Amino acid sequence: MILALLLGCDPCDADCRFMRARATFGKDDAATLAEIAAVDDPVERDMVRLRLAAIDPTRGGFLCRDASTDYGKARCEQVVGRPHLGGEPR
Predict the structure, then answer these.
(1) Deepest of 19, 27, 36, 82, by most Cβ within 10 A of its Cβ?
(2) Tens digits of per-residue pLDDT, 4-20?
(3) Domain for residue 77, yes or no?
(4) Which domain holds residue 29?
(5) Mean pLDDT along residues 47-73
(6) DSSP state, 12?
(7) Is 90 part of a structural domain of the chain?
(8) Would you say 46 and 31 are in contact if contact means Cβ atoms under 8 Å apart?
(9) DSSP characters over 15-81
(10) Higher pLDDT, residue 3 or 45
(11) Are 78 and 49 in contact (CB under 8 A)?
């Protein structure tokens, strides 16, 4: 809750959950997964997974195993399978 206030976003918002998960990504997998799991909508939850996996596909493989939509599963596996495309957009 305090982190959400510091980030200036609603604690129930998927974008805020993404930012919080991003802060733990690569450092604490359990915390990253907990932030993702807190997103109520399955489509938005999978989008958070995809956004994280796109940041670092070589570390994002664990995110794909719990994708809940068929599209989310396919896209996540595609992103993780192409690690050379990882990184922040310019």
Answers:
(1) 36
(2) 555 555 566 899 999 99
(3) yes
(4) 2-85
(5) 90
(6) T
(7) no
(8) no
(9) HHHHHHHHHHTTT-HHHHHHHHHT--SHHHHHHHHHHHHHH-TTTTHHHHTT--SHHHHHHHHHHHT
(10) 45
(11) no
